[in-house]
Write a structure and sequence with these properties.
This protein is mostly helical. It is built from eleven helices and two strands.
């Protein structure tokens, strides 16, 4: 798709995204604003839900996309476009876009370097915090649940080329995504490793991990880890863009 045509689809889709998110964010479109044909302007449809320049918003659901690996962002755009993930606004925005343009969108957000929110109390008991830290750092080998750090990087900031960072994402979002994998509402390319992992976790474990991850933070300038030299602990279709 040519950039100008793609821009038209994005700007048109902004109205749908605005309707979906305006109530939560208090957002209001400005019909008198001058539109310039730049990548930042085209991405305004994304900003309505994901926050300024791709940061997570205070709405409690929409994830930060700034600084995520380009391969991960491209995979998620394709998952929405091809129906493995479900969101009306995302599907509408992406339905006519070419792979080249989706890669351009993924590249734009992957290159943003923005501060993470400060750490805050997770609201977990000491027992729940220990449970979450054990699953994140060590996994549950008896149930073939690998440690989160094995795929998402020791700093949990993601791993190239296509594993996302998980720290500071809203706990509601993390809980919803793990729940969607558990029930088959969210899928990835086969073999769908996250679907397998989520189904091996209890609802209590999902809640503890989600709240613990959301309460951590990362220093400014943190980047996704380099690609792993050793094979991942599970075969994962989404590990490559």
């Amino acid at each position: 798709m040519r950039p100008v045509v793609a821009a038209a689809f994005i700007l048109a889709g902004l109205h749908l995204a605005t309707n979906a998110c305006a109530q939560a964010e208090g957002a209001r479109p400005n019909p008198t604003a001058k539109v310039t044909d730049s990548m930042a302007q085209r991405m305004q449809a994304c900003v309505v839900c994901h926050g300024k320049e791709g940061r997570a918003t205070s709405a409690g659901y929409y994830p930060r996309i700034a600084g995520k690996p380009q391969g991960y962002l491209f995979n998620q755009l394709k998952n929405f476009q091809e129906g493995r993930r479900h969101n009306e606004a995302m599907s509408h925005l992406l339905q006519h876009m070419s792979d080249d343009y989706l890669r351009a969108i993924a590249s734009y957000f992957s290159e943003l370097d923005l501060p993470y929110p400060p750490a805050r109390a997770p609201g977990l008991s000491a027992e729940q915090q220990q449970l979450a830290k054990t699953l994140v750092l060590k996994g549950a080998p008896d149930r073939q649940v690998p440690a989160c750090v094995a795929c998402h990087g020791d700093g949990m900031a993601g791993r190239l080329p296509a594993m996302p960072g998980l720290l500071t994402l809203p706990s509601d979002y993390l809980t919803a995504q793990l729940g969607a994998w558990r029930t088959g509402q969210r899928k990835a390319r086969e073999p769908d490793c996250m679907g397998e992992i989520a189904r091996r976790l209890s609802p209590e474990e999902v809640g503890a991990v989600a709240r613990w991850l959301s309460a951590q933070t990362l220093p400014l300038g943190t980047k996704p880890a380099a690609a792993a030299l050793e094979p991942l602990p599970m075969r994962c279709g989404s590990s490559e863009p």
